[in-house]
Specification:
binds zinc ion; mainly beta; two-stranded antiparallel ribbon; single chain; 59 residues
Amino acid sequence: MPTYGFICSQCEKDFEVFRPMSEYEKPADCPSCGKSAKKVYARSGPPIVKDGTPRYHKQ
Ligand SMILES: [Zn+2]
């Protein structure tokens, strides 16, 4: 099942959601503040490495 990453537009919390492809377009609620979060990536395999850093890992 693909993993979708979201970043909350309200508090900027980033989190991941596992969901079937059929729910790809559904918004996710921020686990921190409950506001809707925007999708920032989707992956189903190894991390996408860009410039030596997995792009979905926020420091
Ligand atoms: Zn939030």
